[in-house]
Amino acid sequence: MATVKFAAYGALKDGNPDKTQAMDVTAALQTAIDGAEFVGLVTIDNDTLGGDPAKNSKKHFAAIVNVDGQDRAFACQEGQTINFG
């Protein structure tokens, strides 16, 4: 069982830390994990996470997920697949 505590998805426009384009995707990630065809396996992309917070930029993803009673940190780039199971 995996419970998402927090998840964010986005980018820094033109690499500028003052131009953050990100969104809270906690609920979208929980929905994706719960509905995964293969238990806990989720591809991190605009479709799965509910939109594109930073058009024309490579997005990054980070999350804290409680897996079997233990908090775990996850991170990847857009297009990668993570096993939250």
What would the keywords be for this entry?
6 strands, 2 helices, 45% strand, 85 residues, two-stranded antiparallel sheet, 4-stranded antiparallel beta sheet
Write the layout of secondary structure elements.
Layout: E1 2-12, E2 20-24, H1 26-34, E3 41-43, H2 46-49, E4 60-67, E5 70-77, E6 81-83
Antiparallel strand pairs: 1-2, 1-4, 3-6, 4-5
Explain how this protein is built.
With 85 residues, the protein is α+β, with helices and mostly antiparallel strands. Helix content is 15%, strand content 45%. The chain has two helices and six strands, in the order ββαβαβββ. The strands form two sheets. The protein has a four-stranded antiparallel sheet with strand order 2-1-4-5, with helices on one face. Strand 4 and strand 5 form a beta hairpin. The longest helix is centred in the middle third of the chain and has 9 residues, at 26-34. The termini are close together. The mean pLDDT is 94.
